[in-house]
Design goal:
Radius of gyration: 31 Å
Number of strands: 0
CATH superfamily of the largest domain: RNA polymerase sigma factor, region 2, helix turn helix motif
CATH architecture of the largest domain: Orthogonal Bundle
Shape: elongated
Strand content: under 5%
Helix content: 55-70%
CATH class of the largest domain: Mainly Alpha
C-alpha cells in the first residue's frame, strides 16, 4: 500500500504522542507499542475514511482510544489462568444425547397427522393457549384439545414412553399442557 508522502509524514509525526498516550492508557510500554503499531495498521487499512484537511493526529488518537477500549472490554471477560487450574474445573455436558433425543422427537412429529402436529406445536412448543390455538386453526377449542391429546398419545407411543407425563418432562424443556 502506497501512502501519499504528506499522509505518511503526518502519521510518523504523531507516533511519539500516540506512544505516550498509549502508555498512559495501558501502563505498559510493550502493550503501548503494540497499540501504536495496531493503530497505524488500522489507519493505513482505512486511510480512505480519513478526511483530507482534518487533523490526522486526532483521527489516529481516536483509532488508538477505540482499539484500547475494545481490547480492554475483551480482556475484562478473560480469566487469568497461567497454570490451567481454572480451565481444569470447567466442564461441559456432552450434546450427543440431547441431539439424539431432538432428532427422535423431530421424526416422531413428522409421523403425526398434520392437524395433530400443528396443534401440538402451537400449544406445546409455541405456548399458545387452547383458545389461541383454536383461533389460529379456525376450529373449536374442543377440537384443539382433542388433537393435542391424540398427538400426545401418539408421540408417547412413537417415543416408547410409558406415560403421557414422560413426554412433558420439564428436565428437557417445557411441559406439554395437560387437558
Amino acid at each position: 500500500m502506497s501512502l501519499a508522502p504528506s499522509v505518511r509524514e503526518a502519521m510518523l509525526e504523531a507516533v511519539p504522542n500516540l506512544r505516550a498516550f498509549a502508555i498512559s492508557l495501558s501502563r505498559n510500554v510493550d502493550r503501548a507499542d503494540d497499540l501504536v503499531q495496531e493503530t497505524l495498521l488500522r489507519a493505513m487499512d482505512n486511510i480512505d475514511s480519513f478526511q483530507p484537511g482534518t487533523n490526522m493526529s486526532a483521527w489516529l488518537f481516536t483509532i488508538l482510544r477505540n482499539l484500547f477500549r475494545s481490547e480492554h472490554r475483551k480482556r475484562r471477560r478473560e480469566v487469568e489462568d497461567p497454570d490451567g487450574a481454572h480451565a481444569a474445573t470447567l466442564t461441559s455436558v456432552p450434546e450427543q444425547q440431547g441431539r439424539l433425543e431432538f432428532e427422535e422427537l423431530r421424526l416422531a412429529l413428522a409421523k403425526l397427522a398434520p392437524d395433530q402436529r400443528e396443534a401440538i406445536i402451537l400449544v406445546g412448543a409455541s405456548g399458545l393457549s387452547y383458545e389461541e390455538a383454536a383461533a389460529v386453526c379456525g376450529c373449536a377449542v374442543g377440537t384443539i384439545k382433542s388433537r393435542v391429546n391424540r398427538a400426545r398419545i401418539r408421540l408417547a407411543e412413537l417415543l416408547t414412553t410409558s406415560t403421557n407425563n414422560d413426554v412433558g418432562d420439564t428436565s428437557c424443556g417445557p411441559a406439554l399442557p395437560q387437558d
